[in-house]
Amino acid sequence: MAKDVIVVVQRDALPTEKESLDILLVSTAGAVPVQVYRDIESVEAVFGETNPKIVRKAKTLLNQGKTTLANGLVNKFKIVGFEAPAVTEATEAKYVITVGAPSEPITQETKLWLHIGEDDAIKVELGDIAEEQVSTADELAKLFADASFTKGSKTYQAAVVDATITFTATQGGKADPVPTALLINKSEEGTADPITVELTAEFTNGTDAISAADNLIAAIQKFQADVDNDWYLLLTDKDDDDYVKALAKFAEASEPSEAELDAGIEDHRKFYVGQTTNKAFADVTARAAVIYTDTEFIDEEPDASYVGNVAPFYPESVTWKFKRPQDGNAPTSAGTKLISLPQLTEAERDALLENHVNFLTEEYKRQYVKEGTCLDGEFIDVVIGADWIAKRMRELLYDILLTNANINYGDDGFGLIAVAVAQALTEATGHNIIARDPESKAGVFSITIPKYADSTEEQRRNRVMPDILWEALLSGAVHRVKTKGVLRASL
Fold first, then answer.
1. Which one of 101, 214, 284, 403 has the fewest CB atoms closer than 10 angstroms to its CB?
2. Contact 325, 339 (CB under 8 A)
């Protein structure tokens, strides 16, 4: 029996934690499980003896309180440790032939040719028959002792053991496949009668050498797939050019194309921040920012200082130019100290600017980082802001789909889905990611919501709504750039 009095008490929801950048530091001084760190003491306890560079990065990441313009500081990040990456040497391609005994003895005066393949066969001259005749498999195999052939860019040299002939490429690396169709003939042209003999062949391709930098990328990708892909901004303890370029390309490749998203690839885009002591460093890569410092100042870890100084603004969009990263490892007695000013000629400064490499500069007795760009010239805040929109819009869409028992396949349902787009773009305006109209102060964006009449029969059958198209003007500090996108949903 139902009760006559029912009392329901609801409490206000607790305030949610402030949104912050998900930062991952990668150590290459030994395997260490990924863990969240919130203070330097915890980092020192794990990495103090094995990787002082990671400790320095963590310290400067946290210690930006004197020079950052943000209201807070970085208060947590993840660190994972991998074994030191090493070069994987190239392996040679191999072509193994097993021969049987000839159906009839082959007389001494006979000259033999091996034909590999059919129409455009590789022709291999076999050695002379030393005995009166060849009648066994082992005797036939001996005729291959000095044989060789070339396929593509690789030359193969034979080695014989019993009835097995192993042709090994004289150079390592991936090779063109060698056909397995074989024939032993009494003429080079193949016009004479073939020798009746059982022949089998197997081709095993070689592998190219893998650099230590590429092996680090492979370790990161395996970590993503098997352990943890819930992070966005990446720093490592590797500063050499080959590592920085490999990590930059990894970040660039992390953003899926529209075709990849349609094929089911998840969007786990990353952003890499690195450092270099190479004044001529150049690598036109998206989704990566690099800061230059002189060799004697590399231990100040300016990449971590730069991130620690600007990341606390997130998700608010601010320019990464004009920032003043603090040397977080300087002794307390030294007072507040920025990262050290590199000694650059005007030509060297111009080269860094042309290559979109950031660096601390001094102009009219004011020190700050310029220019706040990625390696392809795009501004860092533009990339991070656009990534935030993609992330937030996806979150809001899932919230709508999960909190509504049913969304009608029609104009009203399409309008409900469009709420995710509108809310994300409105929030992005509040975070200064999207520009405001100077008069109305409203965000400068537009949304095109499809009608039921726009859908195809196939879309209706599969409950896939037509695309919602949107366009927005990103604020980008003083610089402005237009962006647009597509929201695609299945109902």
1. 403
2. yes
Task: Tell me if 178 sits within 8 A of 116, measured CB to CB.
Answer: yes
Residue matched to tokens 């930059």:
248
Strand partners, 482: 473
pLDDT, tens digit, for every residue of 326-350?
999 888 767 789 999 999 999 999 9
Three state DSSP letters for the chain: CCCCCCCCCCCCCCCCCCCCCCEEEEECCCCEEEEEECCHHHHHHHHCCCCHHHHHHHHHHHCCCCCCCCCCCCCCEEEEECCCCCCECCECCEEEEEECCCCCCEECCCCCEEEECCCCCEEEECCCCCCCEECCHHHHHHCCCCCEEEECCEEEEEEEECCEEEEEECCCCCCCCCCCCEEEECCCCCCCCECCCCEEEEEECCECCECHHHHHHHHHHHHHHHCCCCCCEEEECCCCHHHHHHHHHHHHHCCCCHHHHHCCCCCCCCEEEEEECCCCCCCCCCCEEEEECCHHHHHHCHHHHHHHHHHHHCCCCCCCCCCCCECCCCCHHHCCCECCCCCCCHHHHHHHHHCCCEEEEEECCEEEEECCECCCCCEHHHHHHHHHHHHHHHHHHHHHHHHCCCCCCCHHHHHHHHHHHHHHHHHHHHCCCECECCCCCCECEEEECCCHHHCCHHHHHCCECCCEEEEEEECCCCCCEEEEEEECCEC
Rg from Cα positions in the chain:
32
* Residues 65-111: tens digit of each pLDDT: 999 999 999 999 999 999 999 999 999 999 999 999 999 999 988 99
Closest CA to 271 of 351, 391, 398: 391
What are the structure tokens assigned to 262, written together?
A: 């349609």
**Mean pLDDT (whole number) for 144-153:** 95
Measured CA to CA, the distance from residue 204 to residue 305 in angstroms comes to 49
Specify whether the CB–CB gap between 77 and 62 falls below 8 A: no
Q: Quick check: 477 pLDDT over 50?
A: no
The single-letter code of the amino acid at 410 is G
Q: Which tokens is 294 given?
A: 């002189």
Compute CA distances 21 → 174, 266, 373, whole Å.
Answer: 41, 19, 18
Task: Determine the Cα–Cα distance for residues 135 and 192; give it in Å rounded to an integer.
Answer: 20
Q: Are strands 445-448 and 468-474 parallel, antiparallel or unpaired?
A: antiparallel
Q: CB atoms < 10 A from the CB of 268, how many?
A: 13
Q: List the structure tokens of 359.
A: 């660096």
Helices 40-47/52-62 angle, 10° precision:
170
Residue 267 corresponds to which tokens in the numbers above? Answer: 């969007």
